[in-house]
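Continuing from yesterday's entry. The apo prediction looked reasonable, so today I'm repeating it with NAP included to see how the binding region is handled. Same sequence as before; SMILES copied from the compound registry.
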Amino acid sequence: MAEWTVADIPSQSGRLAVVTGANSGIGWHTALELARAGGEVILAARTQQKGQDAVERIHRQIPEAKVRFEILDLASLKSVRAFAAKVNREARLDLLVNNAGVMRLPKRQVTEDGFEVQFGTNFLGPFALTNLLLPAMLRAESARVTTVSSGAANMGSKRINFEDMQGEKGYGPWKAYCQSKLADLMLMTELGRRSVAAGYSLLSNAAHPGFARTNLQTTGPGREMNAAERWMASFMSQDAAHGALPTLRAATDVNAAMGSYYAPNGSFQLKGEPVLVPLPKPARDEAAARKLWEISEELTGVQRPLKDSN
Ligand SMILES: NC(=O)c1ccc[n+]([C@@H]2O[C@H](COP(=O)([O-])OP(=O)(O)OC[C@H]3O[C@@H](n4cnc5c(N)ncnc54)[C@H](OP(=O)(O)O)[C@@H]3O)[C@@H](O)[C@H]2O)c1
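Holo prediction written out below.
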């Protein structure tokens, strides 16, 4: 079968997308290609300067691109609510790409709402955002939520540690990242399950970029990669544009199914062409996903547009 490239993105004309973490790495390339395909894109970023710069960089390549920037800090529920309120004033929202994330903060830190930062930024913020944006998405003919996870979802303890979900008793930088990315996949599956139960025309799926050279490896740890890491990255990774392909495929492929998961097809899914891959086993635990959803509702205080029909 022919490899999937950005040339396969169907026209996005008339569609509105939100991409979180769109000022950098995979999110920026996702926004760029959605805009190139004619879509209107809201680039969500946590600082004014980075957001504006990201918009300018797209306009330099595509002067006619329909892109704009809105501030969104996923580590602040107040910011998430303010962003969602703005977007809900749009006629409809066709696509939400939950892309923003941080990785491996060396020491346990908390968000302004008191959540461990990786859990709060990578999962609870997107959980709240997704639910809060449902009004706009349900006004679209068929909306889609594509959540960016990681191969790390199938590493670490491979479970949600409900006894110490936010690392208060024991924090590990990598352990916390793995759990947050597994939680992302559970957000994806549980959103799909609840949407079907509610009879909504909303598709929920996911992607992971493999190993892509972005700011992710340095922002969280707060240091440059060491020699060994750079050596590994030199042959195991791909550039950010390629890293964005699984996300772009999940977000735009007309054949993408509910619950589908896209990743690179190379060894260990580290790089390569974007293909459909099986959901890792820990992410198929429906009971855990339901429990995580209910706890997240309580933690974020987000209203419940998507009730559990069971
Ligand atoms: N690169 C990889 O190899 C890899 C592998 C697996 C999964 N992923 C996933 O891919 C996604 C994108 O990461 P990337 O590789 O493109 O890294 P990146 O270049 O560091 O981009 C991450 C984006 O998330 C934003 N962000 C971080 N904290 C935020 C917050 N509190 N509120 C709003 N935005 C926030 C960053 O904003 P700032 O610029 O302000 O920090 C940045 O725009 C992440 O979900 C990551 O877990 C990446």
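Comparison notes:
- The mean pLDDT is 95.
- The two ends are 40 Å apart (CA to CA).
Will overlay with the apo model tomorrow.
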